[in-house]
Design goal:
The structure holds two protein chains of two kinds. Chain A is α+β, with helices and mostly antiparallel strands. Chain A has 43 helices and 13 strands. In chain A, the strands form three sheets. Chain A has an eight-stranded antiparallel sheet. Chain A has a three-stranded mixed sheet with strand order 3-5-4, covered by helices on one side. In chain A, a hairpin with a 2-residue loop joins strand 1 and strand 2 (about 585). In chain A, helix 2 (about 40-135) packs across helix 13 (about 365-390). The radius of gyration of chain A is 45 Å and the shape is extended. By secondary structure, chain B is mainly beta. Chain B has two domains: about 1-60, no CATH class; about 60-155, no CATH class. Chain B has helices spanning about 80-85, 95-100, 150-155, and strands at about 1-5, 10-15, 20-25, 35, 40-50, 60-70, 70-75, 85-90, 105, 110-115, 120-130, 140-145. In chain B, strands 1, 2, 3, 4, 5, 6, 7, 8, 9, 10, 11 and 12 form a twelve-stranded antiparallel sheet that branches. The longest helix of chain B has 9 residues, at about 150-155. The chains are: A alpha+beta, B mainly beta. The interface of A and B includes residues 972 and 1003 of A.
């Protein structure tokens, strides 16, 4: 109720009371008058008057009282109102205060922003300064990076000490001030005055305080010797003179005082470190193995510590710590692998600081921007590390050292280049400074390649190994703890090195076997059905033939969940590891050989292996393999495309065995492998079909007897056309230098290249050639016909040949029958291709009509074509089902039936049995799903996926959308449109948590095409097992590719990151 | 979406290894640092912390089903309710698909987009993961119709 309502209510109440009063008075009067007479009336009247007076008084009293009440109430209301207004006023005040506070915060934020900008500018300036004026430490790496040619000996690497830099920079300043003192008659007086205000004379900070100030941390712990003990009296005197001269004479020396103070403090700090070094008062480690680590930490401490000081305004030369001096001393004395490793890692530490300062690549602005980002990371990490350690009772000095080292490692290993978990790539990537540092340490180019190769093998998890090794060591150094670090367990240094080395060997070996190569999955990521890994420690123990009890127990426990079939496979994988050769020794032999070695001997043993000729050979293989793996998906797709095209065209009935190489040189088309009797084709060749034809020209059984004539004809033609055969030979020898091509091979290459090119060339040349070489024209026709099924260029060649032959025949024969004889194509070719009389006549008609020969073959596309189905079915799957006793043709004839009601139960069981034998994709295998274009935006936004999915290998032949649409029966989903200009493919890896099922007998009896309930898609294009995947979240590393529908080319790619979502690559 | 309970608060779980994982937050809670993406760019209002798995108080994968015309269906991404007011639901049962007018999405998989007004209730399913997988049970919780949109906003608020 508001005040007005309350007032009305009160007035109403008062009116009611007055009415009641009047009624009471009237009732009293009537009562008296009706009962008395005469005086009684008077008395009665008086009484009435008295009564009235009484009553009136009472009424007045009451009214007054009410009035008071109303006034009081009003007063209360007004008070309340005032209070309310007052409250509002307070609220307003609060709001205003808050606003003011916000303004202050905003101002502060603005100031922080400005400060950050300044800090960023300082970082930028510092990067620029270093860039312009150079710093011998950085320039050493920078030079190596820029020139790429540093080939000096290890001992010639310039180790310029901080003292060298310091003395070089400040010697002039000392002389300058001394000159002033010597010529100023009042110098002593000024020095005395200066001393009175010099904080270094009166309250010099401790080393810790100076160091902590660089991180903006406070310290109350001053146990470290006061700086004053290490201050140089001469330097103090010079500083005092500058202070005194400024104070008394008003000469502005502020900048000089600042610079010189910093220098004096720096010298004292260095003197302190020098003393520590001289007296051995520094952290000692087991150099033999910790050397490379010590190198990095020293580099990190030195580099980052200096960087931090510089970023915070101290531009004086920085202090070399006793640990760093000890490390450098030890490093200079070391040799061999120890030295290389130390240098490599030491330079890694230096790179860290370089990166912090904006070193690395790109424009100066880019470097500076990176410096800002990394510095922020550094500060955050350092601050956290410091806080964490200080809570545990460590001193400021210990905590600070630990913070710097830990943050340095963080930045070095995980944040370099701003790429989370990609640090090692920047550290060891293709163009890294580390590579160039290696160049300075390893003279022999082959050795360089070997070491680079090892670094190249760095993959996910490597930094984890480094961190795991480092963590206890960092703590040992910084916190004086005595942490043991296990070197022979997974994650340890030995495992790290062994991982590198075996990566090379496994990759090399696998490339020989043509296996998919992923060393981590071989060495460290062998999981049992429950998803648990078998540790490298256990593998090592078993291979060494000397497992400890823990190894055996782990093995036994780990192996329990396997079924018999899984066991065989897993033993196979372990056996693969055991058989991997490193420098001519199998991994198993190495494990046994190193079982009783100490850690140093293990490193040396591996070092000797990687210097062996055998290993160099393996590295060469690895190089090719690595390049292949770098673009695996593209190469694989290209290979598949080529392979499928060729298989599609020539089928498998020609008896030609094909294999593929991946040589970047497009001029290498391929060669005939005499030893293994197979044709090898380079997937990168410009025209693999031509290559195939060339091999056939020289090696086809039907044509071979004509080869001498063909060769003569080719050379004669070349001669007539003025082709420099010698130059062509030289070019072929150069291109094929890695393939040991014999003289005969070179000759065959020339002949086949010429004839092949000619056949695919212009019509006039073909006719000219055929008219002069009728004896083998028919053979060539037959050969070209094999390729002309779908390839336009070959169809044209076939047409040209046909015209040429017909033209030739017109000279000699007149009936088509005789012409057919001329076409004698040979027994190796399928009759339905070209060599039936009917076909030939048809082709003649085609030619007469101006159509391409073979044109009408397209009409049969919708019928089951076993050859085509075989070409689209994964070769691995074909092999697998054959081994399991299933007949491809029978399966195809069953699954090509759309309506499951028309499939006899026996046939259904046959296909279902096959699908059960194939099973669902295993953990670690890649699976692929095709997603419609209209889902593009949704899929990027969603967090989960489900539905039909296939083993990527099983559908690798399907890349053109039209084929995918037909083969996988995508018409089931209305979201797919055959005219879509692109489609989406999703790749992921099967995890132990995934739920995949073979869709067998789903909705029994109620299936609608294309659902056949058999597990394999109802398709005429091949066998494509598909699986139903329950909903699952996207996983790290999942891939989304957008592919052009017509060409199958990848136009865009995304990678899933659990922290960030989909990232466009 | 994987959710982790840490210091009594729920966070989305990002990358993880056998021993540690990332938690992501919209607020700068204790120990969290600014999130810098893979391109080196600082992401506003996103913070990250790397913690040992052992420090997690709970962890589960979050799924959602909806009740539509008295039947329970899997929901794809309930956050679409905020943008379009609709959500996709699925079934692999042909009878059900025919009954409710679902569209074939893949073989044996049918989908339908339904409006918010047609949702009768939302079911939250928490499936234990990581170390809790073997120690805890999957739990479900029904979100009444009137609370659904607030709940979806809550889900969308995870970093």
């Amino acid at each position: 109720m508001n005040f007005i309502e309350w007032l009305k209510k009160k007035q109403q109440e008062e009116k009611q009371k007055q009415q009641q009063q009047q009624q009471q008075e009237a009732a009293a009067y009537d009562s008296i008058m009706s009962t008395g007479a005469g005086s009684e009336k008077y008395i009665a009247k008086k009484q009435v008057q008295q009564q009235n007076n009484k009553s009136q008084k009472s009424i007045i009293d009451k009214a007054l009282k009410i009035k008071d009440e109303i006034e009081q109430q009003q007063k209360n209301e007004f008070d309340t109102y005032d209070n309310m207004m007052s409250a509002n006023s307070e609220l307003y005040k609060l709001k205003m205060e808050k606003r003011k506070q916000n303004e202050v915060i905003a101002e502060k934020n603005k100031a922080i922003l400005e400060e950050n900008k300044k800090r960023y500018q300082r970082a930028k300036d510092e990067a620029k300064r270093l860039h312009l004026f150079g710093d011998d430490r950085y320039s050493f790496i920078q030079d190596a990076y820029n020139n790429q040619t540093y080939g000096g000996k290890i001992d010639e690497i310039p180790y310029v000490t901080t003292a060298d830099i310091r003395n070089k920079n400040i010697s002039n300043i000392d002389t300058e001030i001394d000159t002033k003192i010597n010529t100023d008659p009042n110098a002593n007086d000024l020095i005395t005055q200066g001393a009175s205000i010099n904080p270094l004379e009166n309250d010099a900070p401790t080393y810790d305080e100076m160091a902590l100030s660089t991180l903006g941390l406070d310290s109350e712990d001053s146990y470290i010797t006061n700086f004053r003990d290490y201050l140089n009296p001469d330097e103090l005197r010079r500083l005092n003179y500058l202070l005194g001269d400024q104070k008394k004479n008003g000469v502005d020396h502020s900048q000089s005082i600042k610079d010189y103070s910093a220098m004096v403090i720096n010298r004292a700090g260095q003197a302190y470190e020098d003393k520590r070094y001289e007296t051995g008062d520094y952290v000692h480690g087991n150099f033999y193995l910790s050397s490379p680590i010590h190198g990095l930490t020293s580099g990190t401490i030195g580099g980052i510590g200096k960087t931090m000081k510089r970023l915070f305004g101290d531009i004086s030369p920085t202090v070399t710590t006793a640990e760093e001096m000890a490390y450098q001393d030890e490093l200079n004395k070391s040799t061999g692998f120890k030295k290389i490793a130390g240098l490599v890692l030491y330079n890694g530490g230096q790179i860290t600081s370089s990166v912090l300062l904006g070193g690395g690549y790109g424009s100066l602005e880019a470097k500076a921007a990176r410096a800002g980002t990394n510095t922020m990371m550094f500060l955050t990490t350092a601050g956290n590390s410091y806080d964490n350690v200080i809570k545990n009772g460590y001193t400021d000095r210990e905590a600070l050292t630990y913070a710097i080292m830990d943050a340095g490692m963080e930045v070095l290993l995980t944040k370099i280049g701003g790429k989370l978990a990609g640090g090692i790539e920047q550290l060891a990537g293709t163009k890294s400074l580390l590579k160039n540092a290696i160049k300075t340490t390893v003279k022999n180019p082959i050795d360089q390649r070997a070491v680079n190769k090892i670094i190249n093998m760095a993959s996910e998890g490597t930094e984890e190994y480094i961190q795991q090794v480092f963590n206890p060591i960092v703590k040992n150094i910084a916190l004086g703890e005595d942490n043991k670090f296990k070197l022979n367990v997974e994650g340890g240094l030995t495992a790290f090195l062994v991982g590198f080395l075996t990566a090379g060997a496994v990759n090399a070996t696998c490339s020989n076997y043509g296996l998919k190569s992923d060393v981590l999955s071989y060495v460290y990521k062998i999981r049992n059905p429950e998803g648990n890994y078998l540790s490298a420690d256990a593998i090592y123990g078993v291979h060494s033939g000397n497992p400890i009890q823990d190894n055996i127990l782990e093995y036994a426990e780990w192996i329990k969940p396997f079924k018999e079939q899984g066991l065989e496979e897993i033993f196979g994988r372990i056996k693969n590891i055991a058989e991997v050769e490193i420098g001519g020794k199998t991994y198993s032999e190495i494990c046994k050989a190193t079982a009783n070695m100490n850690k140093g001997e293990v490193i040396d043993y591996y070092f000797s292996l990687i210097n062996s000729p055998k290993y160099k050979q393996e590295v060469e293989q690895l190089k090719a393999r690595k390049e292949y793996l770098d673009k695996t998906s593209d190469v694989k797709l290209a290979e598949d495309k080529v392979r499928n095209r060729i298989y599609d065209i020539i089928g498998k009935n020609t008896g030609v065995e094909l294999s593929f190489i991946n040589d970047a040189n497009e001029n290498v088309g391929g060669y005939f492998d005499d030893k293994n009797n197979k044709i090898v084709i380079n997937s990168n060749s410009k025209n693999p079909m031509l290559v195939m034809l060339m091999r056939e020209i020289t090696h086809n059984a039907q044509l071979s007897k004509f080869y001498p004539a063909l060769k003569d004809a080719a050379f004669k033609d070349m001669e007539n056309k003025g082709i420099d055969v010698k130059a062509a030979e030289d070019k072929i020898r150069e291109d094929y230098k890695d393939y040991n091509l014999s003289d005969k091979g070179v000759e065959q290459e020339i002949v086949s290249k010429y004839v092949g090119g000619m056949l695919l060339g212009n019509e006039a040349d073909v006719i000219d050639f055929v008219l002069r070489n009728k004896t083998f024209a028919g053979k060539l026709y037959g050969l070209v016909s094999k390729f002309a099924v779908k390839d336009k260029a070959f169809m044209e060649a076939k047409n040209n040949l046909a015209k040429a032959i017909l033209a030739g025949n017109e000279e000699n024969v007149s009936s088509p029958g005789e012409a057919v004889l001329q076409y004698d194509i040979g027994e190796g070719i399928k009759s339905d291709e070209v060599n039936t009389e009917e076909n030939v006549i048809n082709e003649q008609n085609d030619i007469a009509n101006g159509d391409e020969v073979g044109y009408k073959r397209e009409e049969g596309e919708n019928a089951l074509d076993l050859k085509r189905a075989e070409s689209y079915t994964s070769k691995g799957l074909l092999k697998s089902i054959k081994e399991k006793g299933y007949d491809f043709e029978r399966v195809m004839r069953i699954i090509s039936i759309d309506d499951p009601a028309k499939i006899p139960q026996e046939d259904k069981d046959y296909v279902i049995g096959m699908m059960r034998d194939i099973g669902v994709p295993k953990v670690g295998e890649t699976i692929r799903k095709i997603i419609p274009k209209v889902k593009y935006k949704n899929i990027l936004r969603n967090k989960t996926i489900k539905g039909f999915i296939a083993n990527a290998e099983h559908v690798s032949s399907l890349n053109i959308f039209d084929v995918i649409h037909k083969a996988l029966r995508l018409e089931a989903n209305e979201d797919f449109n055959e005219n879509d200009d692109f489609y989406i493919e999703y790749f992921t890896t099967v995890t132990a948590e995934d739920k995949l099922a073979i869709p067998i007998n789903k909705n029994s009896g109620q299936l609608k095409p294309p659902c056949n309930g058999l597990g394999a898609t109802a398709s005429i294009f091949g066998i494509f097992p598909e699986y139903f995947m329950r909903r699952r979240g996207f996983q790290d590393g999942d891939i989304l590719n957008l592919r052009d529908s017509k060409t199958g080319e990848k136009t865009k790619s995304y990678r899933y990151d659990r922290d960030e979502g989909w990232i466009e690559e | 979406m994987d959710i982790g309970l840490y210091h009594g608060k729920q966070y989305r779980i990002g990358k993880f290894t056998d021993v540690s994982l990332h938690l992501l937050s919209r607020s700068k809670d204790e120990g969290f640092t600014e999130f810098i993406n893979s391109k080196g760019v600082l992401v506003e209002n996103k913070y990250i912390i790397d913690i040992p798995i052992a420090d997690l108080e709970d962890a589960y994968e979050l799924w959602h089903d909806v009740i539509y015309k008295g039947n329970q269906f899997e929901a794809d991404n309930i956050e679409t309710l905020l943008e379009s007011g609709s959500v996709d639901i699925d079934t692999d049962d042909l009878d059900t698909a025919n009954k409710f007018g679902f569209k074939m999405q893949d073989q044996y998989w049918y989908s339908k987009t339904i409006k918010f007004k047609d949702i009768e209730a939302l079911i939250e399913i928490k499936e234990p993961i990581l170390k809790f997988e073997k120690t805890k049970q999957t739990t479900t919780h029904t979100i009444p119709k009137e609370e659904i949109m607030d709940y979806v906003k809550y889900i969308a608020s995870f970093a």
